[in-house]
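Interim report, section 4.2 (structural modelling).
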Amino acid sequence: MYEIGRVCIKTAGRDAKNPCVIVDKMENGYVLIDGNVRRRKCNIKHLEPLDIILKIKKDAKNEEVIKALEEAKVPLKGKRAVRRKPKTIKAKEDGKGTPKKVH
Amino acid sequence: MKLRRISIRTPGKINKFIYKKARPKSHKCSICKKVLLGTLRERPAKLRNIGKSKKVPSRPYRGVLCSRCMRDKIKAIVRGKENV
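Predicted structure of the assembly:
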């Protein structure tokens, strides 16, 4: 499951909540990641994988990884950088007021 | 307001107690109620002159959640069980 090109979200550390891509595999449960995070080795236990796989080569550079992330429309910054489910709005019983927008 | 009691000996050789303002309690995690690490316990006048990076750790939800609860919350958001 943790192969080269898999997009994950980092759950621990100072760059948590950021998307990253697996670039190389190491032993003892470590991988090399890059993307919107620092280019370092990371433990598999601190990653949450998504269901997107990119086509990049082994040991790709930072610019190529960010370009591939933007083409796949993975949001790099802000609140939408982490997937969330849409809000459900209940209509008011009196019928007063205007409904709010759904983000 | 709580005061702390200090015992002193005056120059006239009298033992007595004086009272000073006490430090606040340590900050707690809002979910598991454990003591948060990396935070300062000082009165507001001292906190104002210290920069923010020395009062709080550098990660999301700092000063609010402990590291274990933050990891669980991010996993729940990614899996679609919680809103941001």
